[in-house]
Amino acid sequence: MPGVRRRGKLRRTVAAALTAFICGCGGSGEDLAGTADLGVRAVWEQPSLVEASDASGAVFGPIIPRSVLAVRFLALHEQSGEACCLAILRGPATFETRAFFLTRLPSGPVTLRADAYPQRAAPADGIATTCSTDPPGVGVACTEGADPLPTFTSVPLSVTVLPNERNDAGILRFLSTPFLIERDPEPGGSVLGPRPRIAMTVVDGLHHVRDDLRVSLFVPSLGQEVDVLADSLERCDDRSGDPECSEDGELDVTGIRFEGRPAPGDAVPAGVAVVRVHTGNDADPPRDLFTSYPIEVLPGDTTTTTTTTLSTTTTVVPTTTLLPPTTTLPPPTTTTLPPTTTTTLTPPTTTTTVGPVTTTTLPAAVFCVLRFSVPESESLATLNFRFDYPLAEGAIVGTGPDTSCRTLVAVDSSAILNGDVKRLIASLTSQNGFATPADVVECDYKGPTPPKAGDFVLVTSSATRPDSTPAPVSVLVSTIGCIPASN
Length: 487
Hints:
By secondary structure, this protein is mostly beta strands. Helices cover 1% and strands 45% of the residues. The protein has one helix at 92-95; strands at 22-23, 37-46, 52-53, 59-61, 70-77, 83-89, 101-103, 108-117, 132-134, 152-154, 157-161, 166-176, 179-184, 189-192, 198-204, 214-219, 224-237, 254-262, 271-280, 288-298, 305-307, 335-336, 366-388, 395-396, 406-407, 413-419, 423-447, 457-464, 472-473, 476-484.
């Protein structure tokens, strides 16, 4: 990426050293048969002040970075399928308390995930239930539509919670990951074509953003992807202020400011387009970012922007072909998620269209089987992904924990939820690791017509190896096979 000014060694300024969260399940003082306490400790990747370390060589400590304005906890009970979400917002009442319990979760296998976000809200990912806490009022409900790109993400913990005992889940290690700020147009916004101006700032709370930044536009109406050529590239640094990445340097990040347009010969027609961004940071091992979001290209040749009501999605992964069942090609790029999408969490090229979520119930005319696969050669201890399909006329059979999906690889535990907003969340855990490439999850689907390529948006949130190092893998819809529905 020629012409990018690169700063020297990162410097870290922290306003205050805040200790890690302690959370648990149970402990509310109520007589809830079968519930139990679960203690969890959290540490954050640091440039210094070594307090803990892992196999990746990253160092951890109690200081919560300034780019963290909300921390989200997701608890998935793997047997019942119950799930809850809780957002802890930065502020004296919550961050200074530093201790709480998640309550009313049944005993048994529980997968606990946690991610941090740069805004005072956290995405719900289709989970409508807010986790109960002791003391009450520690957090707030997670929000549908909140920006899903995390600033720090952790490897999920899978714990068997024993009833009537205080259990220790271990340590959640939060790793820095690249994310986007100051997007223009914003996700769901509009811009005049035929050479729409695309601008953004790609940042990281701890590491440098790599020089291999690629921005492109996927045009569903043409089935083509065009590169967005940089008119302006500039390194930014909140710590030196020359120039700042975030407003008044409030996030304490470094990164790259990008502004560009498609080449003169790559006219983009009016309609929906998908902005795709692919890069990563210079951590060891590096953590990749592949994210995408919809915009509306309007007829014209100016660059003013307005806003529309398109829905927002992130980290798109490859889609699939139509009948008869076929397999899509592996994506040309992958995303390292220490945890999806992301974030690895949260990945690669795909065909996608976007628009308002359809809620009308339609008669089933076809029955299909969808398979999700990991195309890379790896041994995975954890794999987590989110799959959105807002434009599909049909839906995956079953909702909540009663989904028709099943795992296709040997795992110690799994949790798969299908939301009413056409969103699938999967979390797979294997202590010894399962081998890929492989089909990993299979789901039944019913609808009035076979699903089309471009109906699906898949978000990889995390993948790790048995030694806890991030695994650079992608997840894609590998096959779709349909027959006439029997009812």
